[in-house]
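Progress report, Aim 2. The chain analyzed during this reporting quarter is listed below.
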Amino acid sequence: MDLHVRYEGDDDPEKCTARRLAKFDHATLHRSTREVPPGIVLNPFAERAISPADRHDSVGDQLVALDCSWETAEREAFDLDGVHRSLPFLVAANPVNYGTAFQLNTVEAFAGALAILGERQQAETILEPFSWGHTFLELNEEPLRRYAECADSAEVVAVQDEYLADEE
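Predicted structure tokens for the chain:
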């Protein structure tokens, strides 16, 4: 799958996973919303969760993420063309948000989406340049496997609800 990032550039360049993805030719950075091709937009505000069924959408061969600081991530920032989907419950492995649910950085969001969409090998590949990358897949092994077995967004949400109930 092609990975595209609407890059805001408002975070620490040394810790920016989107920049590292581009450096290793795993993703294309776009400074303007107009430059970003339509795709499956990873949007935490989306009403539907990503599922394997999204692979069959007309834009299912491209994933799009917005790379910005969590402090500036507002609904309006995600005004990108495509099918908007949220990621289900996953736990961050990056050093900044380790162990925190729903606080993924850009590469973790892409890797989670790729694994759910049946592109596990590509998820592993894009995580290779990060010393903690394998940890993301290890921490989320069971939920990623279960989400990837779902038929649609409703099933993904049902599985997610099981994990959220365990968190309470």
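The mean pLDDT is 90. The radius of gyration is 15 Å. These observations will guide the mutagenesis work planned for the next reporting period.
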